[in-house]
């Protein structure tokens, strides 16, 4: 495949997996949690590097899950001790992120791991680090890991579709009929962590947030059906990824920045034009809006 | 026959105790109103009994058995305001959630589950709204959907948190008809209730609660002016009594 092809494929995989996870993120009202985890996985990556002394994607995935779970457990713990919800998120993630930054600066030194890379990602480097797979041949490592993560995310979402639905909509009912709401919460945090870290190389910690939240928030405006919301959100993610790449190529600018910007444009269009919640439809039929 | 027995149940939010040594027993087939002032711990009592909120101590037996073995025999109706009604789903889908415990892990609901859910919606007079997005329903209709969801659970014991709060008169009647019908089928039903005017009409048993049980038993014996005053403290207006 061509260089551009790999980048488009990688970006689309980011769009699909983030778009899928994003739906649950929005419906569980945990967008802030994604902000937190997208930063603290940095600590997980650095610690994984310090332990193994190599920048392997698999170690990073494990480090990210540990960091993500640690983040959500710490936040829950502070909240249960009476610290205000959003304050505890802010305190935990900035502190863990800071530890990651300090470790990179002091311990990691000249390795291919720096703060700017972690924050912004660099998808243009993705095709250069390859792994060899039987039958398929050489493919970029980031693309391979993203494919696996996407499969895991899709299997988890489809396999436990009704469990995700009920624990998101009515956790009290879910708990009362014996669905392990707490286990589902931490499973979700793990899925969010591996998605974030897999998308890290491509788009970085800040832009991954745009890919997680904005396509799902746009899809929410278009449909009243959960299954359709998943499809639309994944689709919007891919659309933003591809549109972002070509915009960046055209303007000769940052790819991850353009992708995040494209999600924003998609959201603005949805906000204005969606049939049910859109600003335009409300202006055109004031009777419905007043209802 | 025993429906529900609660012994020494206590619970706290952070450090303040909201329930202190709650003890009561209710017979099978009773329809009980839980009555008490704001902050008396009515909702908390339901949540603690169902282990949705941690308890400090005490035991609860449902038809003589612990919660673990009775989960599938218990129907819980949370407060209407506790869920996000903008969630992308329709009325039928919400009712089907009541069956998720029976459907089994990782399986999707079958046609017969859909039929059961439709029948329950029908019973609540909501069949025409089955495919309506839930934010497009009125408060009363949303509450009926919640009741339908409890009905499909086909439980032995029901715990309902303010099902009559903020609903229209027709919905109130529909819900009361359903509750009496459940009682008629020997189900044990506990309802958090806020309207003192209707307690005597609606419930055969009453539990007066203010952080602990002030009184409980058959409505005719327990729901007296003195007991209610004692539960609510001063400043309560009793029925049509108008201060001169």
Unreliable residue runs of chain B: none
Quote the beta fraction of chain B. 25-35%
CATH architectural name of chain B:
3-Layer(aba) Sandwich
End-to-end span of chain B in angstroms?
47 Å
The CATH class of chain A is identified as Mainly Alpha
Q: What is the name of the CATH superfamily of chain A? A: ABC transporter involved in vitamin B12 uptake, BtuC
Number of helical elements of chain B: 10
Taken together, the total number of domains of chain B comes to 1
Give your account of this protein's structure:
The complex is a heterodimer of chains A (291) and B (244). With 291 residues, chain A is mainly α. In chain A, 80% of the residues lie in helices and 3% in strands. Chain A has 13 helices and 2 strands. Chain A has a two-stranded antiparallel sheet with strand order 1-2. The longest helix of chain A is centred in the C-terminal third of the chain and has 42 residues, at 181-222. Chain A starts with a helix and ends with a helix. With 244 residues, chain B is an alpha/beta fold. Chain B has one domain: P-loop containing nucleotide triphosphate hydrolases (Rossmann fold, 3-Layer(aba) Sandwich). Chain B has helices at 42-49, 67-70, 91-97, 100-103, 111-123, 139-152, 169-184, 199-202, 219-222, 225-232; strands at 2-13, 16-27, 31-35, 57-62, 74-77, 157-161, 188-192, 205-210, 212-218. In chain B, the strands form 2 sheets. In chain B, strands 5-6-7-3-8-9 form a 6-stranded mixed beta sheet, sandwiched between helices. Chain B has a 3-stranded antiparallel beta sheet with strand order 2-1-4, with helices on one face. The model of chain B has no long low-confidence stretch (mean pLDDT 92). The interface between A and B is medium-sized, with 28 and 31 residues. Chain B: Belongs to the ABC transporter superfamily. Chain B: Keywords: ATP-binding, Nucleotide-binding, Transport. Chain B: It comes from Paenibacillus agri. Chain B: One of its GO terms (molecular function) is ATP hydrolysis activity.
């Amino acid at each position: 495949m061509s260089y551009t092809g790999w980048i488009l494929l990688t970006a689309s995989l980011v769009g699909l997996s983030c778009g899928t996870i994003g739906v649950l993120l929005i419906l569980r009202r945990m967008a802030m949690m994604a902000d937190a985890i997208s930063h603290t996985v940095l600590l997980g990556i650095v610690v994984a590097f310090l332990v193994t002394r190599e920048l392997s994607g698999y170690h990073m995935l494990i480090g990210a899950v540990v960091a993500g779970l640690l983040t959500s457990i710490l936040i829950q713990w502070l909240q249960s001790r009476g610290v205000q919800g959003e304050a505890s998120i802010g305190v935990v993630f900035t502190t863990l992120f800071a530890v990651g930054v300090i470790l990179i600066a002091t311990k990691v030194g000249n390795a291919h791991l720096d703060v700017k890379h972690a924050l912004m990602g660099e998808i243009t480097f993705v095709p250069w680090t390859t792994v060899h797979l039987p039958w398929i041949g050489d493919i970029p490592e980031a693309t391979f890991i993203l494919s696996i993560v996407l499969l895991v995310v899709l299997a988890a979402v489809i396999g436990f579709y009704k469990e995700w639905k009920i624990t998101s909509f009515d956790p009290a009912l879910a708990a009362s009929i014996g669905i392990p709401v707490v286990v589902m919460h931490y499973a979700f945090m793990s899925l969010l962590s591996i998605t974030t870290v897999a998308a890290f190389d491509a788009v970085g910690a800040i832009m991954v947030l745009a890919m997680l939240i904005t396509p799902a928030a746009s899809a929410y405006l278009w449909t009243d059906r959960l299954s359709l919301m998943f499809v639309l959100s994944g689709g919007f993610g891919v659309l933003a990824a591809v549109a972002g790449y070509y915009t960046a190529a055209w303007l000769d600018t940052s790819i991850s920045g353009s992708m995040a910007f494209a999600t924003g444009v998609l959201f603005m269009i949805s906000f204005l034009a969606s049939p049910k919640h859109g600003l335009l439809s409300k202006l055109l039929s004031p009777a419905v809006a007043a209802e | 026959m025993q429906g529900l027995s609660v012994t020494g149940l206590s619970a706290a939010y952070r450090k303040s105790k909201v329930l202190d040594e709650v003890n009561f027993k209710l017979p099978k087939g009773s329809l009980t109103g839980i009555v008490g002032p704001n902050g008396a711990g009515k909702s908390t009592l339901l949540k603690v009994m169902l282990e949705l909120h941690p308890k400090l101590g005490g035991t609860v037996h449902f038809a003589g058995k612990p919660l673990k073995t009775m989960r599938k025999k218990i129907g819980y109706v949370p407060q209407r305001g506790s869920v996000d009604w903008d969630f992308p789903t329709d009325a039928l889908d919400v009712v089907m959630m009541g069956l998720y415990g029976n459907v089994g892990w990782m399986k999707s609901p079958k046609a017969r589950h859909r039929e059961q859910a439709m029948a329950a919606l029908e019973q609540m007079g909501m069949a025409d709204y089955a495919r309506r997005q839930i934010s497009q329903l009125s408060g009363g209709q949303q509450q009926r959907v919640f009741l339908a969801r409890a009905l499909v659970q086909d439980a032995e014991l029901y715990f309902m948190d303010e099902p009559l709060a903020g609903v229209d008169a027709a919905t109130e009647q529909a819900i009361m008809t359903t509750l009496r019908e459940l009682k008629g089928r020997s189900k044990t039903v506990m309802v958090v209730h806020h309207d003192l005017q209707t307690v005597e009409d609606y419930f055969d048993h009453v539990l007066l609660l203010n952080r602990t049980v002030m009184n409980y038993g058959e409505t005719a014996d327990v729901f007296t002016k003195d007991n209610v005053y004692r539960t609510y403290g001063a400043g309560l207006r009793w029925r049509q009594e108008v201060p001169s």
